[in-house]
Each structure stands twice: as C-alpha cells, then as structure tokens.
User: Which sequence fits this backbone?
C-alpha cells in the first residue's frame, strides 16, 4: 500500500513536471472551455426557441373562432422536443433526431428539422461535446501520458533496480495506474466544474428531469471508464518490450475502440436487420388500412356494418335519430383503427431499429467505449429511448386531440344538415380547454432499465481492470 | 538501389499486415456503399409502383371530381444519387432523396424526413471516403514517422551521408516508395469499387481519384516536414498523431459546433407554423379576400367561376396556396441560413485539407448540402408544374377520364453540378507545396547532422 503510494507519487511528479503535460493540459482547458461554451449556447438558444414556438403554436390554436370541431382536428398543433439540460454535456443522437412534429387528425407526420438535415458535411467529423472530450480525447491523452510509465523504465534499466529493491510488479502496476488515474481526475475536474456552472446558470431545471441523479450517474460512469483507461495504459506499458511498441499498441487499441469498432458494429447491425425506408413503410401502412376499412369511403363494408349495428342498438332507422353525431362517431372509430395500424407498424419498425442498435449494445462487452457512450447518452436524455418517448408522447397527444374533437362533434353537432348555409359550430372556449402538449423526461428508473446493458458493461469493465492488473503482474517481465 | 529499397520496405511483415488490413476495411466500405445505392434503388422502385397503384385506385374511386381526386394523388420527385455517392454517402443518408408530394401546400410537405435509425446516423457511414479521410493518414504516418529518425537511431545515417552526396534525395526516395505503396492501395480500392459497384469511368470518378491523390500527397508532405525536424522516432510519431487528432477530429468538429451555434435555423419552425396558419385560418376568413389574394398570384385563373353553390375546390386550393404564399418569406430565410452555413464551412475548409477533402468528396458525389438545397429548389418547380397542369382541370371541372395518367410517372432531379477543378485542387496544392518547401528549407538549415 505504502509502496503503491510512493510509486504513484513518483509517476505524478515526473509527468506534472514535464513540459508536454503543461502544453497538453492547457490545450485541454481550451477544448473544455470551447465545448462548454458552444454546448451552452446551443442548448439555451435551441431550448428558448422551442419553448417560444410551442407557445406561438398554442396561441394560434387558442385564437381560433367558433367553428366545427372537425376543422380544429385538422387545424392541429405542433409538438416541440425539449432538450434535457444534460444534453449540454452529451449531445448524443440529438443532432440526428427531428425536433418538431405537426400533429393533425388522420395522419402521423414525421418529426422534422434535425440539426443533421441543416448541417454541412462537417457534421460527419462529429461534434465537440464535454462527453466526447472525456470519452474519446481524454483516453488518447492518458495513453500519451502513460505509455512509457513502465516501458521506459524497462528501457533504461531502472525497472530492474526497482524490482530488486523489493517493489513487486503488482505494486508497480498499481502505483502507476493510481498515478495515471489521478492525472485523469485532474483532467476531469474542469469538465465537472463547467458542467456544474452550466447547470447552475439555468434559471429552472425541468421537474422530473432528475438532473442531479443523472449527473451523479454520469460522474460514476466516467470514473469507472477513466480508471479502466488508466489501467490499460499501464498494463500495456508493462507488457511491451519498449515504449515505442507500447505507444503503437495503445494507439491501435484507441483507434479500434473509439473509431473503427463503433462504426463497424453499427454497420453490421443495419446490414443484419434491414429496415424499410419511408416509402416502403407508408405502402405497408396504407395496405393495412385499406384492408380493415376506409372511413372516408361511404361504401366501405366495415363502416357499413358499423352503421347498421349502431342503428340497431339505438332502435333507429336513420342516423338522424341517433342521440349523437354519427359522422363524429364514425371518425372516432376510423381514427382508432388507423392509429392502431400505424402504431403497430411503427412498433415493428422500431423493433428493427432496436435490433440494429442491440448489436452495438452487446458489443459494449468487447468495446468499453461503446458502453460508456451508450450509458452517457442514456443518462443525458439524448439516446434513442429518450427520442422514442418524445415521439410516443407526441403521438399520444395527437390521438387525444383528434378523439377529443370527434367527441365534441358527437356531443354538440346535430345530425341534421345545416340550414341556411351556416355550418354547425361550437364555441371557441373548447379550444382553450384542451391542454397544450408538454414533453416530459422519463424517470431515471426507466432509463436505467432500458440501458441496463451499457451500465452492466461499464461495471464489468471496471471489475475486469483488477483482473487485468493481476494478470499483467504475473505475465510482465523486467526485460 | 531504388528497387532494392522498395522490396525491402514491402517485404516487412508489419507493412504487409497493414496493407491487408486496409484492403479489407476498404473492401467493407465499398460493399457498404453498394448497399446504400441498392437501398435507394429499392425505394425508387417502391415509389414508382406505389404512385401507379394510388393513381389507378383513386381514379377508379373518384371518377367525377378532379378536385377531390387531386386531394389524394401524390407525385414522386426523385433525387437519384450519382453512382459515386456509394464512395461518399455524405449527407444523403440524412436527407430524404424522394419527395412524394400532393398538389396542396408545398411548405407543409417538402421538409418531411424519411424514417431513419438515428444511431446509424450518429456513427455515420463507413464508406470509402471515410477510409481515405480518416484512416489513410494513419497509414501514411505509420509508414513515414521514422524514415529519418530510424537511420539516426540505428546509426546508419552517417553511413548514408558518406555514400550519398545529396541526402535530401535519399529521404525523398524513401518517402516516394511509401507514397507509391499508399497510392497503389488507393488505386486498388478504386479499381475494386469500379468493379463491385459498377462505377462509370467519368469525370466524377477522376475528380474523386484526384482529390484522394492530393489528400494523400498532403499527408506525405506533412510527414516530410515533421521528420526533417529530426526529433526522435517517438516524438515524431507523437507530433504526427497530434496533427491527425487536430485535423481529423478536433478542428472540423469545432468548426461544426461554431456553425451550429452561430446560425440557428429558427426559420424552419416559423415556416412550419406560418404555413399551417396561412392555410387553416382561411376557413374562417372571407372567401372574397382569399380568392383575390389567389388571383393576385395567378391572374390567369381569374375567369374561372369560384362561387358555385356546392363546395368549391377552387377556393380550397386557393387556401392551400395562401399557406405557401404567407410562409414564403420564412422559407427563403431558412434557405439563406443554410447557404450561409454552407459558405462558412467552405471558407473554413480552405485552411484545413481534411475538411476540404470531405466537402469535395461529397460535392463530387452530389451528397452535400448544396446539392440537397438545389434539389429542394427544384422540388418547388416540380410542384408548380403539377399545380399548373391540374389547376385548370380542377377549376374547369374537366372529366377525369380524359387525363392521360400514364404520363404521371415519377420524375428525376438532374443536378447541374459540374466538377469545379480549380476550387477543388488549389488548396491541396498550396498546402502541399508549402509543407514540401518548408521541409526542404528546414532540412538544409539543419545541415546534414
């Protein structure tokens, strides 16, 4: 224990004194500042913009005069996706998901206006976020700072001296790992600080956003990951014949884990589970809907049967005698059926996406970078599950809107044809009564459950690091 | 001596392993590109079928009312990617390349996206342009970083100095061997792409190849500059890798962050809301004012009767048109914003060859933002043509049977995007020359230590 401490202190002293460390750390601070400022700018500007537009859409909804409720069903409204405050830390897939959707009766629209759709080809290089710095750049920095920790001692013969003085390989590896991890903490500190400043600058944090619980989770994830990176750097250094080959191995590992594997396994996932494009999807939905019945077609057999049974149940000969508006009733039924079909198809599509993503998910067991990335996106509320929640909420709201308007029609609109050219209408107070769309974030428990694999993988890698130390201590040679 | 050095290099085990690995990754990227093209083709065929079926079914259902029929009918306008898109998928997996539109308001439908798995987009495509852009520099670095330092470290440098009276030539010779191997690998991959994807041998392919060659030359020149600084092998490697991290990872991403924060596209959302309000509020406004506004846009339709006793489709399509008209300013502002983004990216790229290569690859393949904006513009023209074709028939209550529906097949967008050779090659050549000359000067100043 004492030996470990001495070795760690020694490692730290050497690195911190070196000029390279000063340059790298200054560059790091600049990067962190840049990521923090642009992340903050983007978050606040986008969030403000979306809140404003949500209000604007609402105002024009409420400003509608008295009219037929079905007109309001078609007037529709918009749902804007809110950003989670932690998206300042990890943009996740937010740049690739749409931000706004038009909600109307009979039709499920796509969520439009993703940042990617607006972007020049440069987005392909990725984005600088605090998460990207910690998960991609910091490991590289640690590899640079740690590659010759033991390998160099091997080269200049001091390792033999150290070993002969009674320091075991285990405490040498432990000591250097702790030293490098301490460096990692020095690098992580500004990131944590700016994140706290970013969050503190928010006038309000969303209720149900569980910002602090998620932040703590993120911190733990980062610590596990950085410990693993430190251990890998030191163990590779101990196992390599010289510092050059240690550096090359570490760079190879970094390139494979951070760049090549994540891309490749996702490509494998989408090749294994091909998903239909929009046209194929729409064709399938249309086919299903035509099969079950078309509420706009007066001769449709399903709706003819429905009408007959409704008339029979109410002992009526014609729809005029029904106590409610029949066409509202028919549209309610049509909406229910078409929404059911659409959502079923959408569910199938998302199942395909999830199978594609599962390939990556399971690969977090061979690539810890994928694990920490997925975990971090999940906690920052910027992963696929978070996006689906927005879509589900928007669709739910759309359905409620359409059905509420249909019910208003059933209740207040007469079955008889309007006299003197004035269409039937109801009071505008009904529009204000129907509440606005609100996008809420899922509880942390749901997040953890959905991303359990990423959490487990990160934890497993953390545990594995101790096995790696043991293994290296046995295997490593002094020469 | 040259041939001997070449053989010596190519026979090294690590070089062979690296080449095999790159060949394999390159091959995978080509197959991924081919799959991308095939998927696009499947969608094109699907929409062609769908359009025909929908026309047939609806014409049968609604044989008497042009106005109602055109409420349902949709027409496809396709941005068919060039085969070279398989080499540089760029933005084409994000931007929808099929617009399937009805003749109602355009603004409400032209920005509809496809259905995509965002995780796929996040990781991005492993296409050949990625391999060249990100991975080739690493190969060049690995081949070159110790060309000179190794000689010093092994003590052979003094030997060389004695034998060779122009040591610069010796270094250039060693570098050129490595350059030829890298270029050879690039050509083999291009050849494989031509065979596997079936690329036509045309100007675009030549432009793609030229950009690739110039990009490889740039990295070789950068390696040259670093090695003549005469640092140790590991310092040279560190410097080159830092350059890679900076040029391929950090700087382009920083520029992207800057552009995103500098130009937020709020006009997209206001277009969205304005279009809805522009159309829907017309149900509650005076019909005369709606029609007057419509006739102001289309004076040629003034003579049609619009105030008939039954529901009038002329009024309905006029309302739709006003949704577009009232959101037109926002739509233009959004387009201008995107052009501004594109311009600042292009400007920044002049100083960073990696960004230049990325933008050029996608420009050549027609998968960049410029091409997408041109496609969106052209979609407006397509939509206008369809409207002008059908408006007189709707307004004049023509007979549906007289329409030749076989004419209404999907149409293709043809881009006029010539390869701009000057803009494409100049930055690379300047940078390469600068680095090369700088390297030679440093080498001579340092003397032949």
Assistant:
């Amino acid at each position: 224990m004492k030996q470990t401490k001495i070795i760690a202190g020694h490692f730290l002293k050497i690195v911190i004194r070196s000029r390279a460390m000063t340059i790298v750390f200054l560059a790091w601070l600049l990067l962190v500042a840049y990521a923090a400022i642009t992340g903050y700018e983007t978050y606040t500007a986008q969030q403000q913009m979306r809140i404003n537009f949500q209000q604007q859409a609402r105002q024009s909804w409420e400003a509608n005069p008295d009219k037929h409720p079905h007109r309001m069903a078609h007037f529709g409204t918009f749902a804007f996706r809110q950003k989670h405050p932690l998206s300042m830390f990890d943009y996740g897939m937010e740049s690739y998901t749409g931000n706004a959707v038009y909600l109307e009766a009979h039709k499920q629209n796509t969520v439009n206006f993703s940042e990617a759709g607006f972007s020049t080809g440069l987005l392909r290089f990725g984005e600088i976020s605090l998460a990207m710095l910690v998960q991609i750049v910091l490991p590289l920095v640690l590899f640079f700072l740690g590659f010759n920790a033991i390998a160099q001692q091997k080269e200049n013969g001091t390792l033999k001296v150290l070993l002969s003085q009674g320091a075991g390989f285990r405490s040498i590896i432990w000591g250097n790992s702790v030293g490098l991890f301490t460096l990692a903490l020095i690098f992580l500190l500004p990131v944590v600080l700016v994140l706290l400043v970013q969050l503190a600058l928010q006038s309000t944090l969303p209720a149900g956003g569980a910002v602090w619980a998620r932040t703590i989770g993120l911190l733990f994830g980062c610590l596990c990951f950085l410990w693993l990176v430190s251990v890998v750097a030191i163990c590779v250094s101990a196992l390599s014949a010289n510092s050059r080959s240690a550096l090359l191995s570490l760079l190879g590992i970094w390139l494979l884990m951070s760049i090549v594997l994540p891309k490749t396994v996702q490509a494998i996932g989408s090749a294994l589970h091909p998903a239909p494009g929009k046209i194929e999807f729409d064709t399938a939905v249309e086919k299903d809907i035509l099969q079950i019945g078309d509420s706009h077609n007066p001769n449709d057999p399903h709706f003819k049967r429905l009408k007959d049974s409704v008339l029979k149940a109410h002992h009526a000969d014609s729809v005029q005698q029904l106590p409610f508006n029949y066409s509202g009733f028919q549209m309610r039924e049509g909406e229910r059926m078409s929404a059911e079909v659409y959502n079923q198809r959408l569910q199938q599509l998302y199942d395909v996406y999830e199978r594609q993503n599962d390939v990556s998910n399971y690969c977090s067991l061979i690539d810890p970078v994928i694990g920490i990335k997925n975990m971090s996106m999940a906690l920052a509320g910027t992963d696929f599950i978070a996006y689906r929640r927005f879509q589900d909420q928007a669709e739910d709201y759309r359905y409620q809107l359409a059905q509420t308007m249909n019910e208003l029609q059933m209740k207040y609109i007469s079955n008889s044809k309007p006299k003197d050219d004035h269409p039937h209408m109801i009071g505008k107070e009904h529009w204000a009564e129907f509440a606005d769309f609100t996008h809420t974030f899922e509880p942390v428990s749901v997040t953890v459950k959905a991303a359990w694999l990423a959490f487990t993988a990160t934890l497993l890698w953390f545990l594995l690091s101790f096995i790696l130390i043991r293994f290296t201590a046995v295997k490593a040679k002094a020469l | 001596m040259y041939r001997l050095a070449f053989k010596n290099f190519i026979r090294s085990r690590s070089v062979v392993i690296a080449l095999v690995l790159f060949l394999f990754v390159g091959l995978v990227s080509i197959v991924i590109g081919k799959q991308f093209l095939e998927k696009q083709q499947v969608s094109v065929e699907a929409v062609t079928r769908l359009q025909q079926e929908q026309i047939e079914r609806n014409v049968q259902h609604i044989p008497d009312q042009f106005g109602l029929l055109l409420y349902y009918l949709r027409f496809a306008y396709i941005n068919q990617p060039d085969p070279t898109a398989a080499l540089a998928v760029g933005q084409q997996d994000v931007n929808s390349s099929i617009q399937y539109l009805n003749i109602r308001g355009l603004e409400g439908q032209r920005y509809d996206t496809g259905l995509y798995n965002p995780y796929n987009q996040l990781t991005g495509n492993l296409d050949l342009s990625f391999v060249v852009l990100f991975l080739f520099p690493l190969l060049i670095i690995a081949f070159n970083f110790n060309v000179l330092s190794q000689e010093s470290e092994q003590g052979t440098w003094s030997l060389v100095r004695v034998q060779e009276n122009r040591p610069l030539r010796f270094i250039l010779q060693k570098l050129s061997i490595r350059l030829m191997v890298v270029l050879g690998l690039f050509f083999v991959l291009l050849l494989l792409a031509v065979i596997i994807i079936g690329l036509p041998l045309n100007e675009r392919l030549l432009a793609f190849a030229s950009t690739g060659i110039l990009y490889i030359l740039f990295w070789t020149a950068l390696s040259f500059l670093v090695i003549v600084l005469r640092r140790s092998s590991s310092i040279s490697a560190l410097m080159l890798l830092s350059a890679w991290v900076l040029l391929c990872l950090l700087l382009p991403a920083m520029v992207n962050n800057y552009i995103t924060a500098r130009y937020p596209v709020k006009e997209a959302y206001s277009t969205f809301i304005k279009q809805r309000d522009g159309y829907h509020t017309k149900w509650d406004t005076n019909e005369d004012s709606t029609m007057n506004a419509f006739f102001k846009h289309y004076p040629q339709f003034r003579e049609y009767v619009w105030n008939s006793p039954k529901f009038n489709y002329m009024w309905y399509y006029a309302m739709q048109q006003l949704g577009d008209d009232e959101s037109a300013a926002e739509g233009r502002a959004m387009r201008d914003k995107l052009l501004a983004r594109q311009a600042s990216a292009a400007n920044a790229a002049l100083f960073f060859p990696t960004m230049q290569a990325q933008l050029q690859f996608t420009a050549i393949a027609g998968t960049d933002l410029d091409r997408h904006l041109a496609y969106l513009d052209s979609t407006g023209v397509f939509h206008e043509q369809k409207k002008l074709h059908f408006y007189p028939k709707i307004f004049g209550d023509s007979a549906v049977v007289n329409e030749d529906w076989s004419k209404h097949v999907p149409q293709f967008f043809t881009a006029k995007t010539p390869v701009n050779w000057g803009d494409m090659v100049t930055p690379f050549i300047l940078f390469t020359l600068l680095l090369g000359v700088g390297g030679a000067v440093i080498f001579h100043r340092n003397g032949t230590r």
Observations:
- Chain B touches chain A through 86 residues (CB under 8 Å).
- Chain B has a mean pLDDT of 91.
